[in-house]
Amino acid sequence: MRCPAILLTVALATLLAPGAGAPVHRQGSRHKLLLVSFDGFRWNYDQDVDTPNLDAMARDGVKARYMTPAFVTMTSPCHFTLVTGKYIENHGVVHNMYYSTTSKVKLPYHATLGVQRWWDNGSVPIWITAQRQGLKTGSFFYPGGNVTYQGVAVTRSRKEGVLHNYKNETEWRANVDTVMAWFTEEDLDLVTLYFGEPDSTGHKYGPESRERKEMVQQVDRTVGYLRERIAHSHLTDSLNLIVTSDHGMTTVNKRAGDLVEFHKFPNFTFQDIEFELLDYGPNGMLLPKDGRLEKVYNALKDAHPKLHVYKQEEFPEAFHYANNPRITPLLMYSDLGYVIHGRVNVQFNNGEHGFDNNDMDMKTIFRAVGPSFQVGLEVEPFESIHVYELMCQLLGIVPEANDGHPGALRPMLRTESALLPDGGSALLPDGGSALLPSSQPLLMMGLLGTMILLSEVA
Ligand SMILES: *[C@@H]1O[C@H](CO)[C@@H](O)[C@H](O)[C@H]1NC(C)=O
Ligand SMILES: *[C@@H]1O[C@H](CO)[C@@H](O)[C@H](O)[C@H]1NC(C)=O
Ligand SMILES: *[C@@H]1O[C@H](CO)[C@@H](O)[C@H](O)[C@H]1NC(C)=O
Ligand SMILES: *[C@@H]1O[C@H](CO)[C@@H](O)[C@H](O)[C@H]1NC(C)=O
Ligand SMILES: [Zn+2]
């Protein structure tokens, strides 16, 4: 009984995906695109809180069961993956903090937002690609959107102040209004809009707290406000809206009897270390002094059962993280719930991210609605590297080289033409789809699709 089901979904996925490179069906002028990120929105945050507006968006559009972020599950690296389609080792924004192992400079998240050479490291994000192809773009607080790439700035860019209050709902609405004006008065084609919640609240109070649940309701009200403003601006039929995030959140095991504390490891001494980046959740990087790599590695590799220390070249390839010149000779991560303490314990968050992207608590959301998206479709999980190709298709622009697959998210799209395949081309998209639609109505369509497919083949 497994075979027919698989055939069905494969047939459906193929039918919904037009041939690679074929333009997305669009009527009249080009559709606009708004990418919204609510930082640290774990995939299941809508399951213990009433979220009427997110629910309505799912009914009207597409919802992924969850999305798998890139590793390392940190804000700037994951946001840059969304706008480049590259794994983190391939775009080079490997940390929230700018650092240099030679000058020993380390800058916090906000300061790093303004360090052009940290971001402009050989990859061209979607704003710049779209502008080179004649489009106008904007970035509102989106990480990486306030520097120049190969000398080019985003058409309209806003950066938050250093002491920004990330949870002011009044300001959120004003920001939504500004973005709507960018679309209607300045005719921008693509805008990325960032909110720093529910990440901040998740860090401070923990992901299972009442405060986090209240913040998710604030996010939900904002999604409602956003869609209302889209309708009010007469953009419902001409703007595609994606609501997503960078990573999830998990509870920090603060009172565990087995905390990961470097200052308690026997045979390890900071005197062997030239440069360190520790005390940043579950992630750490070390550059040992000349000739001391083996000594440090041997002292650390079995130092703690929750700590996984690797030489750069031995870091698991599946993470697509360590193969970048910015990565130090030793790097590490700890198990879910454990953070890495360095010289002294200075981490007091109740919630944290940065963990293995296979941990369910690190998974995040993906929702989309608009003229190009199917209605009421729930799709199976996919990796965040694919969102970039989807956005390029929605905007009708030629993408840069990237790690995503052009066909992966096509089944999300309303492709009237694909349901009536012209000859064989639409039946065999190169590489197929990463998605297996999972909703009941789609199963019905799948049956229909299979019949069409069978009659085509016959
Ligand atoms: C990327 O950054 C590294 C330093 O972090 C630098 O050595 C390298 O030249 C940069 N590459 C590009 C293409 O900007
Ligand atoms: C950064 O944002 C500010 C507004 O917040 C804007 O004036 C400036 O032009 C932006 N810079 C770049 C390079 O985008
Ligand atoms: C929230 O934002 C509004 C609009 O920017 C501002 O007038 C108000 O003072 C802010 N409130 C707080 C508590 O920061
Ligand atoms: C520390 O080093 C000594 C001497 O090499 C060794 O006997 C001991 O097992 C090491 N301890 C740990 C915890 O690795
Ligand atoms: Zn984040």
Features:
458 residues; alpha/beta; Alkaline Phosphatase, subunit A; Gyrase A, domain 2; 2 domains; 8-stranded mixed β-sheet; 4-stranded antiparallel β-sheet; 14 helices; 20 strands; 30% helix; 17% strand; disordered N terminus; disordered C terminus; binds 2-acetamido-2-deoxy-beta-D-glucopyranose; binds zinc ion
How would you sum up this structure, described in words?
With 458 residues, this protein is α/β, with parallel strands linked by helices. It folds into two domains: 28-100 and 108-250 and 358-425, 3-Layer(aba) Sandwich (Alkaline Phosphatase, subunit A), CATH 3.40.720; 260-348, Gyrase A, domain 2, CATH 3.30.1360. It contains 14 helices and 20 strands. It has helices at residues 2-16, 52-60, 75-84, 88-91, 109-112, 116-119, 126-132, 169-184, 199-205, 210-232, 293-300, 387-395, 416-419, 440-457; strands spanning 32-38, 62-64, 67-68, 98-99, 106-107, 137-140, 156-158, 190-195, 239-244, 250-251, 260-261, 273-280, 283-288, 307-311, 330-334, 340-341, 351-352, 366-369, 377-379, 382-383. β4 (98-99) and β5 (106-107) form a beta hairpin. The two termini are 23 Å apart. Mean pLDDT is 89; it is low at 1-28, 417-432 and 439-458. The structure holds 2-acetamido-2-deoxy-beta-D-glucopyranose (NAG) (4 copies) and zinc ion. The site of zinc ion has 6 residues, from loops.
